[in-house]
């Protein structure tokens, strides 16, 4: 969130620009939580921010239910407290490309600021507030100069639709054949075609350099991994068990890992999530060191500091970069080297590229004219820095440039797949080993940063030697990983055990429900006098004999009464039945329409979904709307309202990913 509370909003009279993203199930980002909590204080009077004028840009992803809810929440609350817009709110969608809203929103921001400052001048008689803005807006017909705003929204220069001088913005048309030979009819990452290849380009301003890296001869110890997160306590715990849940010929490989948390204060409930601190792939780090020309210096200590005389306002060393550590430590544990490069990074890489054709293509990819090429060949293709350096071999960026532009390597979040009541001192989780196939810009396939690392780490447990093998899939291990809790405030079992609930979890989406059922089984054993509501589980996978996860465990839950109803489907298995069986969980739900409606409407039950959002959760929501509409004999709009009420009451809960 780009509003620092060093500016006192209680008294701030200058226009305020707020940029805020959304995380989790519609929550504000961690950096904005204190601010949001503060403004949601119910005792604040309705004119608390009557003096405040602001413009807000929300960043979100419409793949998720609560699109831009972080921005909407702040916007709504500021309005309730009397604040005024000086500029219309923008809501940018990462699903289609943030720049589609961000770019025009920034375009209009400068004029809106000018008008807001002029109005302020008229009200307060301030002569100097607008002069810098007015002069910069009228300097030249083709360029809107940089505005020095008192916030972190800075160093943005927006080009007019006209072309800038050919010496610093666009290559002459003579260069086009270096980029797109006449025989290439289709554009690619490295080749462009008209009209982009023949256009004068509007490209972003070059971001100012602000980081300096100094290599040192002295030796020291690298920081502890706990220093890489601001989430509070981290726990280094051993992996005690690893089991492959899928057959070797399954399309995806699913693994179950068990962690020993006995000697820690780590606490969790079934339905919670936790995060794993993971490193980048060793071979990718080595390739990057080679590209930087620093292969021999990976173990050297470096000191990272702010460059003297930098033009970046408020420059500081990124919090995720230690002041002193080895170069390998930074590239392995601190930077997301697989991140999709932003346009500002591409703009900076232009200056590190010597080949004229490569330089022009990088300019195109970060320009307005090349926006669709950027989306197609960078964003949608998941291109990363290593891919770019492979595709543009004359590009030789500095280490400091990487530190300036690559984001923090984020810890990866996983759903807990166990109950501490059922397995004291143990924490289990399930994941698919993610695979990224080779592509024209990537000669080899990749595994997921964290899932690939974990799979490699537990390989000795999955394939133990005869000497160390105790039971299949298990052996002693000394491997440890660092984790920290990420509690889920809503995705938990109903507080009243007599309330029935339905669980929908195809594939690895079943993970939290194994914890639910373990917990419920233990409660039934400990409290035979309690009343327990019925439980439903809808599970789906591709093949019954290849990737039916927890098949034996589910059968046991059925037999002992913990699970009342188990409904399964297999999308890739062929059938000789006269009526084809349902392929997907949403199809099975429709077959159980009366029971589903009864649990939700008559018995005030809960409904849980876990798994892929785009290809499952949305279809399940649509099926529920159809079921409610049919069983209530109401129109679809009325059914959608009922579903919205269930969400609001926290009785329709999702733990989904895209």
UniProtKB/TrEMBL annotation:
Entry keywords, A to Z: Amino-acid biosynthesis, FAD, Flavoprotein, FMN, Methionine biosynthesis, NADP, Oxidoreductase, S-adenosyl-L-methionine
A single GO cellular-component term on record: cytosol
Chain segments annotated as coiled-coil in the UniProt record: none
InterPro entries given in the database record: CysJ-like_FAD-binding (IPR003097), FAD-bd_FR_type (IPR017927), Flavdoxin-like (IPR001094), Flavodoxin/NO_synth (IPR008254), Flavoprot_Pyr_Nucl_cyt_Rdtase (IPR001709), Flavoprotein-like_sf (IPR029039), FNR_nucleotide-bd (IPR039261), NADPH_Cyt_P450_Rdtase_alpha (IPR023173)
TM annotation in the entry: none
Required cofactor names: FAD; FMN
Gene Ontology molecular function, alphabetical: [methionine synthase] reductase (NADPH) activity; flavin adenine dinucleotide binding; FMN binding
Name of the protein: Methionine synthase reductase
Organism: Taeniopygia guttata
Highest classification ranks of the organism: Eukaryota, Metazoa, Chordata, Craniata, Vertebrata
């Amino acid at each position: 969130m780009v509003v620092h509370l060093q500016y006192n909003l209680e008294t701030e009279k200058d226009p305020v620009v707020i940029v805020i993203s959304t995380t989790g199930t519609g929550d504000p980002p961690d950096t904005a939580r204190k601010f949001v909590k503060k403004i949601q204080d119910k005792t604040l009077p309705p004119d608390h921010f009557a003096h405040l004028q602001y413009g807000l840009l929300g960043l979100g992803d419409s793949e998720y239910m609560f699109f831009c809810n972080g921005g909407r929440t702040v916007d709504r609350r500021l309005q309730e407290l009397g604040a005024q817009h000086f500029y219309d709110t923008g809501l940018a969608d990462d699903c289609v490309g943030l720049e589609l809203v961000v770019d025009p929103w920034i375009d209009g921001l400068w004029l809106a600021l000018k008008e807001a400052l002029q109005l302020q001048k008229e009200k307060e008689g301030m002569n100097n507030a607008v002069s810098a803005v007015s002069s910069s807006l009228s300097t030249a017909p083709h360029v809107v100069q940089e505005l020095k705003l008192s916030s972190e929204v800075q160093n943005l220069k927006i080009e007019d639709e006209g072309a800038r001088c050919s010496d610093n913005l666009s290559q002459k048309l003579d260069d086009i054949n270096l980029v797109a030979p006449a025989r290439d009819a289709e554009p690619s990452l490295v080749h462009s075609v008209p009209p982009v290849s023949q256009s004068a380009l509007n490209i972003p301003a070059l971001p100012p350099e602000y980081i300096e890296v100094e290599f040192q001869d002295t030796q020291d110890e690298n920081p502890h991994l706990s220093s890489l997160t601001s989430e509070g306590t981290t726990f280094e715990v051993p992996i005690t068990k690893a089991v492959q849940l899928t057959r070797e010929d399954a399309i995806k490989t699913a693994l179950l890992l068990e962690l020993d948390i006995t000697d820690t204060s780590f606490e969790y409930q079934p339905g919670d999530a936790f995060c794993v601190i993971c490193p980048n792939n060793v071979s990718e780090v080595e390739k990057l060191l080679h590209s930087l020309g620093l292969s021999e210096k990976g173990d050297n200590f470096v000191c990272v500091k702010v460059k003297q005389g930098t033009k970046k306002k408020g420059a500081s060393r990124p919090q995720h970069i230690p002041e002193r550590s080895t170069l390998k430590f930074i590239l392995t544990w601190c930077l997301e080297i697989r991140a999709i490069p932003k346009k500002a990074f591409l703009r900076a890489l232009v200056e590190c590229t010597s080949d004229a054709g490569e330089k022009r293509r990088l300019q195109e990819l970060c320009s307005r004219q090349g926006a669709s090429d950027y989306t197609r060949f960078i964003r949608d293709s998941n291109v990363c820095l290593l891919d770019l350096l492979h595709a543009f071999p004359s590009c030789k960026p500095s280490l400091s440039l990487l530190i300036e532009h690559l984001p923090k390597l984020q810890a990866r979040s996983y759903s807990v797949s166990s109950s501490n009541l059922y397995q004291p001192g143990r924490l289990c989780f399930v994941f698919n080993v993610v695979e990224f196939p080779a592509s024209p810009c990537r000669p080899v396939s990749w595994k997921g940063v964290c899932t690939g690392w974990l799979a490699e780490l537990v390989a000795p447990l999955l394939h133990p030697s005869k000497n160390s093998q105790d039971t299949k899939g298990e052996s002693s291990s000394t491997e440890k990983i660092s984790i920290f809790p990420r509690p889920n405030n809503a995705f938990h079992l109903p507080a009243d055990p007599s309330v029935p609930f339905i669980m929908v979890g195809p594939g690895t989406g079943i993970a939290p429900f194994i914890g639910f059922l373990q917990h419920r089984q233990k409660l039934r054993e400990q409290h035979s006098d309690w009343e327990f509501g019925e439980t439903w589980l809808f599970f789906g996978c591709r093949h019954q004999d290849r990737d039916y996860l927890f098949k034996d465990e589910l059968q046991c839950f059925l037999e002992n009464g913990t699970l009342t109803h188990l409904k399964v489907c297999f999308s890739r298995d062929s059938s000789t039945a006269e009526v084809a069986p349902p392929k997907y969980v949403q199809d099975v739900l429709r077959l159980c329409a009366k029971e589903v409606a009864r649990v939700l409407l008559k018995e005030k039950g809960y409904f849980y979904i876990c798994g892929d959002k785009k290809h499952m959760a949305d279809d399940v929501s649509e099926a529920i709307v159809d079921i409610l509409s049919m069983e209530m004999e109401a129109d679809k709009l009325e059914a959608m309202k009922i579903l919205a009420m269930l969400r609001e009451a926290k009785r329709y809960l999702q733990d989904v990913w895209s």
